[in-house]
Amino acid sequence: MPGLIVDDLTVPGLLAPYPLDGLIGDMVARILPPEVPRTTEARS
Q1: Domain span at 13
Q2: CB-side exposure of 28: number of CA atoms within 13 Å?
Q3: Per the confidence metrics, is the pTM higher than 0.70?
């Protein structure tokens, strides 16, 4: 499922201090609904 793939990329992307963090975070922000906190998704 695409959701699982996105989640796999999101967890290291949000936790790692790399330039890709902003890019992945932006992609996730566009994919996930605004009411879904990205921090919760990364920790789950």
Answers
A1: 2-43
A2: 26
A3: no
- Measure Cα distances from 16 to 1, 4, 13, 22, 34 in Å: 24, 19, 6, 10, 22
24 CB neighbour count, 10 Å cutoff = 20
Q: In this structure, are residues 14 and 38 in contact, taking their beta carbons and an 8 Å threshold?
A: yes
Q: Are 23 and 15 in contact (CB under 8 A)?
A: no
**What's the pLDDT tens digit per position in 16-44?**
554 555 677 777 777 766 665 656 555 55
Residue burial 5-21, b: 16+ Cβ < 10 Å; e: rest: ebeeebeebbeeeeeee
Determine the Cα–Cα distance for residues 35 and 17; give it in Å rounded to an integer.
24
User: What's the structural domain count of the chain?
Assistant: 1
